[in-house]
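Hi V.,

Quick status before I head out on leave. The structure for the redesign project is tokenized and pasted below; the design run finished overnight.
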């Protein structure tokens, strides 16, 4: 998968791709990530990418021209499956959405800043609008990182143990069951006997039951879907 991220603050984005799973996905050649500073697509001396709102109102708006230039330059080089805009009024990201995006080949992610982008950008260039939750961030960059992390770990070959993404919370609309590791007893707190019994069919049904109970208690809305 190729991910092109358009931003006014590329420095906010880079280091998470230099560690852990996201780095590994790049090192393995499964993902490539490219950052585009919107200011490189502006011709005026001040490298201004935003301007006042028509009709008045607080906050600056990102102008259409540099965004058009950047997206058009990218599109002239390859086809893109989606041009995503990170915005709090987009569709809320969930595991199903991450699964779908993980199947794509080329995506562009546009990070909003200030009050957001000129509506004509959304009308004419954007194919998908994503929010990471009902709260407002200072910009789309941190949301874009969360989106990238959620998507990249689902790409086949990225995680060492191929099955581990399949047993994540939300994969079956269920939260993950409790997990334990050694020691089997710590300060008198014991791991449930079933997990050390060696009876794998029983362990599997215990996990399913626990996942169901945890979902019922914490996220009953998931069971409605
Ligand atoms: N930009 C600002 N807030 C955001 C959010 N909640 N999700 C995605 N992008 C954003």
């Amino acid at each position: 998968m190729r991910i092109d991220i358009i931003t006014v603050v590329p420095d906010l984005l880079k280091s998470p791709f230099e560690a852990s799973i996201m780095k590994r996905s790049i090192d393995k050649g499964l993902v490539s990530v490219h950052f585009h500073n919107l200011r490189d697509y502006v011709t005026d001396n001040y490298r201004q990418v935003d301007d006042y709102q028509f009709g008045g109102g607080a906050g600056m708006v990102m102008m259409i021209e540099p965004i058009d230039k950047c997206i058009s330059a990218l599109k002239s080089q390859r086809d893109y499956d989606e041009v995503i805009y990170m915005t709090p009024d987009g569709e809320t990201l969930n595991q199903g959405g991450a699964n779908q995006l993980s199947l794509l080949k080329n995506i562009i992610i546009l990070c909003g800043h200030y009050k957001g982008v000129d509506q004509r950008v959304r009308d004419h260039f954007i194919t998908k609008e994503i929010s990471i939750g009902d709260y407002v961030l200072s910009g789309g960059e941190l949301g874009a990182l969360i989106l990238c992390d959620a998507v990249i770990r689902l790409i086949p070959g990225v995680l060492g143990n191929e099955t581990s993404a399949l047993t994540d919370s939300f994969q079956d609309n269920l939260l993950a069951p409790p997990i334990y590791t050694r020691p089997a007893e710590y300060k008198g707190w014991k791991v449930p006997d079933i997990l050390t019994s060696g009876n794998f069919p029983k362990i599997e049904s215990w996990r399913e039951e626990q996942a169901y109970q945890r979902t019922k208690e914490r996220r009953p809305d998931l069971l409605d879907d």
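Above is the designed sequence. The chain has eight helices and nine strands.

G. will cover questions while I'm gone.

Best,
W.
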